[in-house]
Amino acid sequence: MLVFAAPLFLFTPDRERSGIPLRQAIRDGIASVISTVRSLKHYGNVAHYIGARTLFNDGLTGVLTFSGIYAAGAFQLDTLPMTVYGLMIVFCGMLGGFFGGWLDDKFGSKAALLITVGGTAICFGIGLTMGPDRIFWFIPVDPKAAAVLPVPFFDTWPKAIYTLLSCLNAIFVVGAYANNRTMLARIAPLAKMTEFFGLMSLSGTAATFIAPVTVSWLTWWTHSQRGGMIAIVVLLALGWAWMFVVKEERAVAVA
What is the structure's pLDDT at 101? Predict the structure, then answer.
């Protein structure tokens, strides 16, 4: 973080200092955020987006958190294959940043989010149909059959397909993380950009309990790890559907 943040601090120009004392600046900032929250009725489009983002962002975080847990539990992977799995996910996540940027430039932020969030929901949902003895739930596989791939850790078709789906998930998730910030930058009023980014961050942080709690509750209720993970797909699907209400247009600041 220190190395890659250095260009930002060294070469990115900043605005001139306002001369306002720090304590007063903090008070003014808090008052501005409170005022923005009270005036959300005038920014319905942005409010819809923050609501949709709160749901699907928690789902995206749930995918990153639980996909490895599901892999370890479903396929009984120990430390070394899980390390290889994690490195593959990190590499694909890096590619996802470029992919999300390309989608945003090519189709716009809303379309990019529909693609990346929808792709995450589909890939993660399909991944839940994989098991050591089955593919897509309905195709049986002998877990003791000879290796089908010359890879020691992902030597069966269920493991290989699940890993491929997880790599696609990493691409979609990181792309969506990038796109959701760009979307807000495109629709929030310029004069209140900082306040709306603060609201988006606050709403996302306040809702981080939703995915873990619902996954835990559903796992207890269904007595199944797979059943618990369905909550993540639902969160992604709800946020994705809510995005159709959002328009990719700049809001005008209300005095």
Answer: 92
